[in-house]
Amino acid sequence: MYDVKGNLKRILDTLPQEVRLVAISKYHPNEYIEAAYEEGQRVFGESHEQELKLKHGSLPADIVWHFIGHLQTNKVKYIAPYINMIEAVDSLKLLQEINKQAAKCGRVIDVLLELHIAQEATKYGLTLDACRQLLDEGSWRQLPNVRICGLMAMASLTDDREQIRREFNMAADFFDEVKQQYFADAPWFCERSWGMSDDYDIAVECRSTMVRIGTAIFGPRVY
Ligand SMILES: *Cc1c(COP(=O)(O)O)cnc(C)c1O
Fold first, then answer.
1. What's the predicted TM-score (pTM) here?
2. Ligand 1 centroid vs 214 CA: distance in angstroms?
3. What percent of the chain has pLDDT over 70?
4. Is 63:82 a contact under the CB 8 Å cutoff?
5. pLDDT tens, residue order, the chain (223 aa)
6. Could you tell me if 65 and 81 are in contact, meaning their C-beta atoms sit under 8 angstroms apart?
7. How far apart are CA 40 and CA 197, in angstroms?
8. Closest ligand 1 atom number to CA of residue 88
9. CA of 154 to the centre of ligand 1 (A)
10. C-alpha dihedral, 136 to 176 to 216 to 44, nearest 10°
């Protein structure tokens, strides 16, 4: 097996205390997760509902699961009973569905709003303007079973580290704007989820509170 424990230790040693690690375990088998668990890691991230269901059902109950991928509204009901955080919310429709399914389970589900800051053209994530619009519109305030805890972002896939830094800084500045404008009285709005295997060092310099690292812990994914 890949040296999961060694990699995990090395990464935790370099992360500042206040930055939390979400170990991204998608496409990796349970034994890899168990190895990280034995080292004390409790927060794991998955991006497919079916895979998460199997892992959630067979691994220790005190694991904290983050859903990190694009989530279709028709899949929300499957993860609502147990998911701890949904990181990539990029529409009011998805927020409303999470609220509805969370209410059915008698839960409040923590979510992050996903920003689109990278240069790649993807259909996921809110542009800064779209995010402002969603928050301005205000109906998210009527969703008592979701709690917006911060922002999530992915930088461009590039070797240009200065560009990555510009993008993360843009996200960090935007966090301050949104915090001040909409969440000044909401202490739980405090998360900045950015940084993956290749850029988490930059992300930490750009005020990330939560890094999502897969490959650097578990090795290449086998699809
Ligand atoms: C897969 C994934 C990661 C982890 O990527 P690595 O490069 O393996 O660290 C982080 N965030 C999201 C949203 C992902 O889908």
1. 0.97
2. 6
3. 100
4. no
5. 789 999 999 999 999 999 999 999 999 999 999 999 999 999 999 999 999 999 999 999 999 999 999 999 999 999 999 999 999 999 999 999 999 999 999 999 999 999 999 988 777 999 999 999 999 999 999 999 999 999 999 999 999 999 999 999 999 999 999 999 999 999 999 999 999 999 999 999 999 999 999 999 999 998 8
6. no
7. 20
8. 13
9. 9
10. -60
Does 213 sit in the ligand 1 pocket, CB within 6 Å?
Answer: yes
Q: Is 28 exposed, middle or buried (0-12, 13-18, 19+ CB in 10 A)?
A: buried
- The b-or-e profile of 173-210 (16+ CB within 10 A means b, else e) is ebbeebbeebbeeeeebebbbbbbbbbbebbbebbbbb
129 CB neighbour count, 10 Å cutoff: 8
**CB of residue 69 inside a 6 A radius of ligand 1:** yes
Closest residue (by CA) to atom 15 of ligand 1? 69
One-letter amino acid identity for 181?
A: Q
The DSSP code for 84 is S
Q: Closest Cα to atom 11, ligand 1: which residue? A: 212
Please report where in the chains the tokens 């927060």 appear, as a residue.
43
Q: What is the CA radius of gyration of the chain?
A: 17
Tokens describing residue 83: 């998911």
User: 195 in ligand 1 pocket by Cβ < 6 Å?
Assistant: no
Q: Which two tokens stand for residue 91?
A: 């529409």
Collapse the DSSP code of 29 into the 3-class scheme (helix H, G, I; strand E, B; otherwise coil) and give the result: coil
Residue 211 Cβ contacting ligand 1 at under 6 Å: no
